[in-house]
Structure formats: C-alpha cells, structure tokens
Amino acid sequence: MNSTRRDRNQAFLQAFTDWCAAASAWTLYYLFRKVWLEPIRFQHAIPIEFDANYYSGLLLIPLFWLVLYQAAGNYHEVFRKSRLGIVGNTLMVCLLGSLVLFFAISLDDFVPSYRYYYSSFLALFGLHTGITFIERAILSTINARRVQTGRIQFNTLLIGAGPKALDIYRKIKEQPVSSGNHFLGYIPVNGSFEPELAQELHNIGSFENLASIIRERDVEEVIVAPESNEHSYLGKILTELEVTNVYIKVIPDITDILLGSVKMSAIFGAPVIEINRVIMPVWQRSLKRLFDIVISLLVLGIFFPVFLVIAIIVKVGSPGPALYSHYRIGLNGKPFRIYKFRSMYIDAEKMGPQLSSKHDSRITPFGRFMRKTRLDEIPQFYNVLIGTMSIVGPRPERQHYIDQIVQVAPHYRILQKVRPGITGWGQVKFGYAENVTEMVERLKYDILYVENMTLALDFKIMIYTALIVLQGRGK
C-alpha cells in the first residue's frame, strides 16, 4: 500500500476512535449531571431523559474535539509517534479542551456552592481524558506491535556504500525489535564501496538525483552514512533532502556523540543524528494558517472599495489590465499563479524576464507609488486565501531566477519547505533584489526565518512591514 494512503487510513481510524471516545465521555458526563449534579442544584431528583441539549452536544462536542486534535497534530504521522509522547500530548489537549467546554457548558449554572463547579469540571476532564487514554493506549500499542513485528514498514534509502553504510545496515537489520525500516537500496557517494553491501542491497542511482528517486520510489526515510573522505558532500546531500518530505538520519562521528548531537529514538535503535523536519509545531502551523485565512477574508472584504479605486487608477494611468499575473515557485517547488496590481507598462518583459531596478523606466508613476507603499501586492491576499501563499514567508521567485540562484547557493531550495509570503524577513531587512547577487544576499535572511519560524516572529515581521508601508520606505 502507498505510504500516503496507509497514513491517511490510520489517521482516519484514529479520528474515528477519538470520536467514539468523545461521544462516550459526553454521554457519561450528561448522565453524571442528571444523576449527581442537578439534584444538588434543584434540591430534588431529576428524571433521566435524553433531550435536545444531549443530542446537540452529541453532534457538536465530538466535532470540537476532532478539530482540536487536528490542530494539535494528533493525526499527523500516527505511526511515528511514541507512546510516551502520545500520553503527554493527550493530557495537555484534554486539559485545554475541557476548560473550553466547561466555560461553555457549566459556568452559567446557578449553583448552591463552588463545589458544584469543581465536581463538574473534574467529571468532564476525568471522563474524557480517561476514555481517550484507554482507546489511544490500545491503538498505539497495536501500532507499535505492527511496526516492531515488521507488518508496518517504512521505505528506507541508504546513502553511502562504504564500511559505515554496511555497519549501520547490519545493526538495523539485526535489532531484536524491528524499527520498521524496509531498505529499498543504496546510493554511493564518492567511490567508497563495500562489496558485501552490494550483495544485500541494490545501487538505485546517484545522489544528484535524490529528489526524483525519493518521489518515484515513495521513500519515507533516508539514512546518510558517509565515510570520512565523503563529509564534504554532506552539505549538498542534506540540501537536496531538505526539500523532500522524508525523515533524515545521519550516522555520527564520535565528536557528534560527545557534543550531544545524537538522539536515540528507541531503546534498541542505532545511534543516529535525527535532522529535525518540523519547522514549526503543528499547533502553530494550524494557527498560522487560520490567521492567514481570517486576515485575508477581512482585507479582501473590508478594503474591496479601495481595490476598485486602485484598479481604476492603474487602468487610467497607462494602457493595459489592472491586474498582472505570472507563475512563481511555491511550497515543495510547485508553480502557482501570483496576482499583483500592474505597476509597469505593458510589454515590460518583451525581451525576457528582467528584474526591476531603482530607476527602472518600465515602472509607471503610480506603479512607483504602489511599490513604495506595497499596494501593488494587495491582490496576493487572494493567493493567501487559496493556500498558495502565506502572509509571512520568503518571497516567491520565478523558475528562471531560481535556476541561476541554485548555481551559486544550492541551499535556496530550503525556502521551498514553506509557503512563500507577501512579506518576509528578507523583504523587511533587504527589500527587492535588482540582480541574482542581491537575491543570494537576501537569501540568508529568508533562511534564518525558515529555520526559526514562530508565530511571534511572524507578528514581528508584520509590524516591521506595517512601518515600511506607513513610511513609504518600500522599493
């Protein structure tokens, strides 16, 4: 089965069992209120009947929990989660969700004492957490056993063909408990070759074609095992892997172990450095996307009359359409059509792609004003709404210039791990680039952003951007 389909099916199963747990907990909590709490409140026995409040809660409350679990990343890569991590995550999410539900359901109750509130919250939290713990413990134990017995396997690629590669391959294969690695083959790096490895695995290509090999063979994990004379290739290999959606593990030297760089993911696992693929915690990514959608809807709705005025001025100022669009490269290297208010005369690129400069004669008078105030980029909120861009992120470029940039700075591909943005750290600190050299110079700011992404940093960048727009310091 395809790994994506396998993970999607397991996520659906997890969501279904979570829904059952939430529905069961709500039913028991409803009965607890009827049998225990409401007699205290009304000073007489309350008949147990499932009224409209029960059924509306049965419909809405499990849905609330599923949304919360999704935002917390509970349905992402289910087979990779440790049982201890599941316990901690479940406890925190259940506490947060129970607090929200308690304030929504019980806080307006007229009660004889605050003990009623304490009992109500503890019952709500205890019932939901307990039932959820039980179903998740069962499911995670089943998943762990399926991985440990080899029934669930992760397509794995070994980079390296020397003694280190052979050694790590044998250690993984001889583990008393399987880590789930299914080796598809190996890729040599710089001529180091161990004949015994070739007897057990196939050479499936060159590391220059890593991205296509990973895509075509549905690779989920890559183990990099370079020899001492191959370490100079490590940076290029990791740069190629950065733009893929695979787990990356590197076999360490003793120096890495002494420096504390090595992470053990399991008791029986081989010592490896795990390259962290998570740029931003899942809950922050969910909030970032929610924020993008809400702000885009507000901007496109509230300022629609302003857009019409700008469009009319653009049309009157020079012949041609009000909007300009062309293809840029976005998340995971996929092209998308970007929209802007036209700031140049038509046929400005009849001689081919050209970057604008400070005194570019192709820019219209109103276009120059729009660029200083960033008004030309307002239509990109539509791109944000449909998910091809974010409000904050690296500036998207055309493939024509990306091909030139990667010749000088192959690590540019790291930027394709995230959605491009209307504004970003590179735009704030550097601004528009007038040539490829300046694009490379701006790149360091964008990489710093990608490697340190947080919601707090996004807000900081938006504040700086607002100051640039208000002061007309754009270029």
Write a concise synopsis of the structure shown.
The protein is an alpha/beta fold and 475 residues long. The protein has helices spanning 3-42, 52-71, 83-105, 115-148, 163-173, 195-200, 210-216, 234-242, 254-258, 282-302, 304-317, 365-373, 380-386, 399-408, 425-429, 436-451, 455-471; strands at 154-159, 181-187, 221-224, 247-250, 273-275, 323-329, 335-341, 390-392, 421-423. It folds into 3 domains: 3-148, no CATH class; 154-275, Rossmann fold (3-Layer(aba) Sandwich), CATH 3.40.50.720; 282-471, no CATH class.
Describe it.
The protein is α/β, with parallel strands linked by helices. It folds into 3 domains: 3-148, no CATH class; 154-275, NAD(P)-binding Rossmann-like Domain (Rossmann fold), CATH 3.40.50.720; 282-471, no CATH class. Helices cover 53% and strands 9% of the residues. The protein contains 17 helices and 9 strands. It has a 5-stranded mixed β-sheet, sandwiched between helices. Helix 1 (3-42) crosses helix 2 (52-71), helix 1 packs antiparallel against helix 4 and helix 10 (282-302) crosses helix 13. It is flat, with a radius of gyration of 28 Å. The two termini are 51 Å apart.
Number of domains: 3
* Percent of residues in β-strands: 5-15%
How many helical elements? 17
Read across the widest sheet, the strand sequence of neighbours is 2-1-3-4-5
Overall structural class, as computed from helix and strand content, comes to alpha/beta
Low-confidence stretches: 254-261
Rg from alpha-carbon coordinates = 28 Å
State the distance separating the first and last CA atoms: 51 Å
- Average pLDDT works out at 85
Strand count: 9
Shape: flat
Q: Which bin fits the share of residues in helices?
A: 40-55%
Q: Report on the biggest sheet.
A: 5 strands, mixed
Reading the helices and strands in chain order gives HHHHEHEHHEHEHEHHEEHHEHEHHH
